[in-house]
Amino acid sequence: MGHDALMDPFSSKAHFLLYEICMLTIGSYGDVTVTVPNVLILGTVGQPLLLPANYTTGTKDHNIQITWTFQSQSSGSMLLVTAVNNTLTPDMEHGHRFFLSPPSASLLINPVELRDDGEYTIKVTVSGMKLASASRQLIVQVNVPVSKPVVRSDPAWGAVEYVDNATLSCTVTRGTKVIYQWLKDGKPLLPSSRHIFSSDNKMLFISPVLKDDLSNYTCVAKNPISMNESEPIAPNIYYGPYDLMVKSEPRFKVSEGVFTAGKGEPVWFKCSANSNPPNVYSWFQKADNKTTPIQWGPVLNIKSEKVPDKADYMCCVYNNITGKRDETQFTFILSATGQEKLKQKESSLHSLGIIVGMSLTLIVCILLYFLLRRYFPRKVVKEELYHRSPAYYTQAHQV
User: Domain 150-235 is classified in which CATH homologous superfamily?
Assistant: First the structure.
């Protein structure tokens, strides 16, 4: 007994040292680390999707089990696939789409379906002298790419400025988790007192419409995996008339609203105003306290020899959709200046023609004279002698 008692302290220390060594070995033996490159992974319906994962252990002399599980709000929690020491055990219900290739811990889903949207957990368990495990979670979002959106305007026939409202609606035939955005002439359209968006941004309300709303609108539909933009649409807005004005040739304009021309000169005036649809134009003449309708259309041609010396003319425009009208007036004065200038011009041309004709005649006569002297000199001398008187010869003989 005494000998056993003396050995107790030694025996206790030996057991303690053996325990410490075993604990250190098990701690190293049971170290497991699981890593995933991305916590959020995006998937496209109908396409394969890989969930990458890696693990490390402290030693190779152990059994390794890899397990993937899935959890969603609709289907709850379920086991997908398990592998123990490179031996795969797929789940009978879901294993036809979930693949694991040990020793790799990455999970392949092929093809991805909408119901695969949820949380995935990979768990790696090491069994040896002591059990150790580690796990990580990944979030998978599965989407359908958005189709090209289509924008429609209501009312389709058009809206009257300051009177009607307009609604633009954007729709897609395919796509999940779609977010909508509106662009005006290629720039993001912000909400205002007249531009209001629905809660899902699929509809744009314009109340009331103005001429400034006559622009190109497009709708952008996007989700985490795709984006598409509609064709531009311009709502039909009826407005005007605006900026009414009358113009003619600059030489006829004396001052603002006053035109003049000589009697007999053809004169035209053009009336224009910004409007949708195009305006209806009518012309009136005001003279001798009378207003007389002249013609329809934007252009007025005046025969100045058949009009009063001074008269006021008026152009009236009318938009038959908006019901708005406008008018502008100008004064036309006949002047003799134009006719006098025309007569002076004709007289100058006549005088110039006479001078030119006389000059040409004189030049021809001179040329004929010199030609005769050159080609018929004897005949000319003989004729000169023949026509001289006898007194001329007597005087010459005496000398």
Answer: Immunoglobulins (2.60.40.10)
